[in-house]
Amino acid sequence: MTDYQKQVAQALLDIEAVKLQPQAPFTWASGIKSPIYTDNRKIISFPKEREIVIAGLTALIKTQYPDVQAIGGVATAGIPHAAWVAQAMNLPLIYVRAKPKDHGTGKQIEGALTAQQKVVLIDDLISTGGSVLGAVKATRAEAGNVIGVVSIFSYELPAAVKNFAAAQTSFASLTNFSSLIQVAQQSGKITPAELQMIQEWHQTLA
Q1: Could you report the per-residue pLDDT of 126-151, keeping only the tens digit for each?
Q2: Model-level pTM?
Q3: Binding site: what residues are annotated?
Q4: Which of 45, 103, 122, 185 is the most core-located residue (most Cβ within 10 A)?
Q5: What's phi and psi for 185, nearest 5 deg?
């Protein structure tokens, strides 16, 4: 675990953008019972934590994708972070709707995307990668060259690795499931026994 993974994980825990309840699991939209629930939309309301995340995303993109030419936000949660990162990097911004508009020109990409422009898409969370890979497909359909995806948090699910590989798209996250639960235990938010429960749950998703 890097220092930045630890710092971002602590920030998410501090503002309860990520909650851990191994004794009273959440129910995901898929029906899965989970000891962890993520709502990274909360970050936009906390300036200190928001600054940590934006600085981290900016540094991650500069390191992983130094030839980026435009930043894209995935609707809706990725849009504010993409806007702040684009501003920090002095790059063009686009955003990708979940589906094309049903009126006017029927656009799915908002902003000015030029042919073969090298784009990094930002989303708040990667679970299986389905939604963001839909945005990747839409951007490529408009001749954008998506060179990678970055997110604030990743559940580290094998399905995501498989789906991104199938889409021939690389991805990177500021922090992840493994880092976050370790930080949670170290900071006293969960007990060692609860840490083990959460780890065992995660293994069932492999």
Answers
A1: 999 999 999 999 999 999 999 999 99
A2: 0.94
A3: 97, 101, 103, 123-131
A4: 122
A5: -70, -40
Distance between CA atoms of residues 28 and 51, nearest Å: 29
CA atoms within 13 A on the CB side of 112: 2
Show the CA angle centred on residue 115, arms to residues 113 and 116, nearest 5°.
Answer: 105
Question: Which residue positions form the known binding site for orotate?
Answer: 127
Taking CA atoms, 180 is separated from 30, 45, 63, 81, 99, in Å, by: 22, 21, 22, 20, 32
Q: What is the pLDDT of residues 99-133, one digit of tens each?
A: 886 666 668 999 999 999 999 999 999 999 999 99
Spatial distance between the Cα atoms of 18 and 143, rounded to a whole number of angstroms: 36
Which residues, including other chains, have CB under 8 Å from residue 14's CB and lie 6 or more apart? 49
What are the binding residues for 5-phospho-alpha-D-ribose 1-diphosphate? 97, 101, 103, 123-131
